[in-house]
Amino acid sequence: LALESDLRKGLANDELVLYYQPKFSITGEKVLGIEALVRWQHPEKGLVPPGVFLPIAEETGLIFDIGSWVLKQSCLQMKQWQDDGGLQIPISVNLSSQQFHQMNFDQHIHAVLIETGLEAKFLELEITESMMMDAKTSTRTLQKLSDLGVKISLDDFGTGYSSLSYLKQFPINRLKIDRSFISDITNNDHDKAIVSTIISMAQHLKMDVTAEGIETKDQLDYLMQNESMEIQGFYFSKPLPSKDIESLYMKKA
Ligand code: G
Ligand code: G
Ligand code: NA
Ligand code: MN
To answer: Domain EAL, which positions (predicted)?
Structure first.
């Protein structure tokens, strides 16, 4: 496959780049965290989104090298923002299933933290429910990661097939409410019920909550009563190159 060998070369030639999407307090005044999102700056095709090349990376095993690169680069960048800009917020990194389930993944994370100098509490790993199908192995890995001091977020929450008992046994710090529950929240009573139930459940389980995919003022206004909720979405910011994060948001954190 042409794209596969392109991707292999791209990785070697430093063509992967990270974009960064800030996550805000509900008023938009504070940046509470930043999510790293990988893109491929292809010499001819331009900016290729992860939905196009990550499936190829997963089929070919390139995902391990790409995943390691993303982790290291994310930690380096946040460490630099902390040292130069005084940021005291976490960087979130999305994991693929194969990456999470690789042998000694916790030791890999530990090594990246040592190498980059980022404190564990400033790294947040985003996993999805569908990655946790083998509950026993997953619990063990999550527990080791949690013992390191890194934070765990359950991404796209509500769209997978996990049972609620997972929430009981996994050391999870944050639920990210999937944007499919947000897109029609001002009109749809079922979405309203689901979102308020997730928020209340998270509070009782002492987990933090992020609402994803906020695109409009109406959606934000609807969520406004949830003071401690973290907000992510195009309404406040789309994913941006690092220099834009620096010029726009360093002061806000
Ligand atoms: O950024 P964008 O909307 O194009 O992301 C599309 C999908 O790719 C999302 O599900 C996102 O979680 C995933 N994604 C983005 N960056 C990474 C990454 O570094 N690793 C993994 N495993 N997934 C990522
Ligand atoms: O699966 P995950 O939640 O990691 O997906 C992250 C991706 O979602 C981001 O890379 C970004 O491109 C996309 N995204 C972020 N905010 C919004 C939004 O407000 N609306 C839509 N449609 N997509 C968003
Ligand atoms: Na994510
Ligand atoms: Mn998500």
So the answer is: 1-253
Looking up residue 37, the CATH number of its domain turns out to be 3.20.20.450
* CB of 96 closer than 6 angstroms to any ligand 1 atom: yes
Pocket flag, ligand 1, residue 55 (CB < 6 Å): no
**Whose atoms come closest to the Cα of 92: which ligand?**
3
pLDDT tens-place string over residues 38-65 = 999 999 999 999 999 999 999 999 999 9
Q: Which residues form the domain of 66? A: 2-246
- Separation of CA 8 and ligand 3 centre (Å): 24
- Residue 253 domain-assigned (yes or no): no
ipTM associated with this complex: 0.98
- Using the mean position of ligand 3's atoms as its centre, give its distance from the Cα of residue 87 in Å: 21
User: Into how many domains does the chain fold?
Assistant: 1
Residue 96 included in any domain: yes
- Give me the residues paired with residue 22 across strands: 34
Q: What is the dihedral of CA 85, 154, 112, 84, to 10 degrees?
A: 0
